[in-house]
Amino acid sequence: MRAARRLRTCERGLAALEFALLAPALLMLVFAVVLYSFYFAALMGVRHAAVEGARAAVAGLSTAERTALAQGRAQAVIGGYGTLLAAGGGPVVTAGPDATGTFRVRVSYDMSGSPMMRYAAFIPMPSPTVSASIVVTNGSY
Q1: Contact assessment for residue 50 and residue 90, using Cβ atoms and an 8 Å cutoff
Q2: What band does 18 get if pLDDT is binned at 50, 70 and 90?
Q3: Closest Cα to residue 91, out of 68, 75, 114?
Q4: pTM: predicted TM-score of the whole model, two decimal places
Q5: Residue 66: which of 116, 4, 138, 118 has the closest Cα?
Q6: Which stretches make up the TadE-like domain (predicted)?
């Protein structure tokens, strides 16, 4: 009887038990923060490339010149992001006039080839395809 009472009131090893129960949840939370930070950084990079491509397209006089300026500037911005936007061949930049007569710069990136996305099976992630589209009309967007 005395041994059972002593066993119920003993707190040795309680910290190790609490750590064993809580550590997986805390580590999963930290891992999710890291994965989502890479995802949002890639999203911001794609949007930044689209905006800079549209801004550069304003300087062009012809459609061909606007297209070349937009694609060149967007690719330069993408190159500045280094390995973050390099997986799977990198983002695809399309620029040109659309059916409404406006000039559209679209940057899309499939993150499924990224090394970080292979761990996304453990954590629910948004779609691996990230895209941004900017429309330029009459020198403004």
Answers
A1: no
A2: confident
A3: 75
A4: 0.78
A5: 138
A6: 13-55
